Amino acid sequence: MMEIETTRFGKVAVGEDQVITMKRGLIGFADRLRYVILTPNPGSALVWFQSLDDPGLAFVITSPRLFSPDYKINLGEGVLEALEAQTSAELDVYVLVTIPAGRPEKMTGNLIGPLVINPRRKLAEQLIVEDSRYSHKQPLHGFGPKAKTGPRK
Length: 153
Known about the structure:
The chain is mainly beta. The chain has one domain (about 1-140): BH3618-like, CATH 2.30.290.10. Helix content is about 5%, strand content about 30%. It has one helix and eleven strands, in the order E-E-E-E-E-E-H-E-E-E-E-E. The protein has one helix spanning about 75-80, and strands at about 1-5, 10-15, 20, 35-40, 45-50, 60, 90-100, 110, 115-120, 125, 140. A seven-stranded mixed β-barrel has the order 3-4-5-6-7-9-10. Strands 1-2 form a two-stranded antiparallel ribbon. The longest helix has 6 residues, at about 75-80. The N and C termini lie far apart (about 30 Å).
């Protein structure tokens, strides 16, 4: 176990086996490559993707399938290879969530920039989806406290 410092949650103990390494970093944060997933509210559909390289950098993430059941992305050979996976079934897909201050009912998910994680190998990559059906500000309608946690492809 190691202890990490975060600005949102203070000191948090995490296992070395929880550290997820980004291949190229998130868009706009290319030099922040190490993260952990924190679940401060067990049972919540929203979790945090906390940077280990910057205590003040954390992103709310969730499974896109919770609010967009038909969400599908093409995980080509390059993605599988980069994340050391044989099939897409080995990978978890998340989207970054934006929650406007004081207006949680207006939260949106970034469906064109999903975060794909190989939980076994602890590798991740943010993709750019070129599908006009999706938006980087998809309203999270019907998304509430009863939604179950867990990533879906």
